[in-house]
Amino acid sequence: MKPVLRTQGLSKSYGSRPALIDVTLTVPAGRVVGLVGPNGAGKSTLLNLAAGMIAPTAGTIEVLGSRPAADAAQLARIGFVAQDTPVYAGLTVGDHLRMGRRLNPRWDDALAEGRVAQVGLDPAQKAGRLSGGQRAQLALTIAAAKRPELLIFDEPVASLDPLARRAFLQSLMEFVAELEVGVILSSHLLSDLERVCDHMIVLTGSRVQLTGDVEDLLATHYRLVAARGGLDALPPGVEVIHAEHTDRQSTLLVHDTVGAVPGLAADTEHLNLEDMILAYLTRAALGAVGARAPQTLEAQR
């Protein structure tokens, strides 16, 4: 199967301000992808490029093997929900479903009406009077009822309370199972991504810091603890992502690409997803000479 997303040297600038710089990545089919990074990292820009809302400044991007928004058929293959799960405040829930039916050739009435009933939405109620969680469920239903091959979400749960977030993510995973659809999900909330994602892209400073299947990434990232000086000479293929030192001991977070860590004279343990991602974000922040301090990425537990 073709990758759901493939980019090569992808860059996007707004005037003189770069939003994405030389992004090269491949996302295999059948993944639920978490896109994570601080505000201003380029997440929304990447998703808008994938949805065909904007065009790149340089490089190439393919979604489901074609140029984004190349034609009506390509648009029908993607369901996109922008930030704040936008809906039309003056239209009822039923109006949204009727509009979806008119605009989308593969619209699934049974799926849309069944989901609206399941989550307790009143078809006669105007969207402007729905709660944030209800609006998110409506936007998700409309996107899924298109019967797309890829669902793209830009911070869909950032403004929701914990119960509404959990309900949204549960609905999303039910759609993934029912439709066998790929997902790219941008979020600041690491606990949410850890719950549903099996592939990760970490963006910061407009560049990709890390990408890959979560299982593979966790298998190759470690925390090493040894006496001070005991980890000064690491073998080739072991990259230090973050280091902390006291007078007596050193703690390193590393990426081991050659399987050398088990042979080191150090206490070792695999990193969890939160620690791994935060290590890369910290490294990028410390390396941003003269940059404004990045906003804290929320890591809820």
TrEMBL record:
Domain called ABC transporter: residue spans: 5-230
Keyword ATP-binding in record: yes
MF (Gene Ontology): ATP binding; ATP hydrolysis activity
InterPro entries cross-referenced by the UniProt entry: AAA+_ATPase, ABC_transporter-like_ATP-bd, ABC_Transporter_VariousFunc, P-loop_NTPase
KW tRNA processing (keyword) present: no
UniProt entry keywords in alphabetical sequence: ATP-binding, Nucleotide-binding, Transport
Protein name: ABC transporter ATP-binding protein
Organism, as annotated: Actinoplanes auranticolor
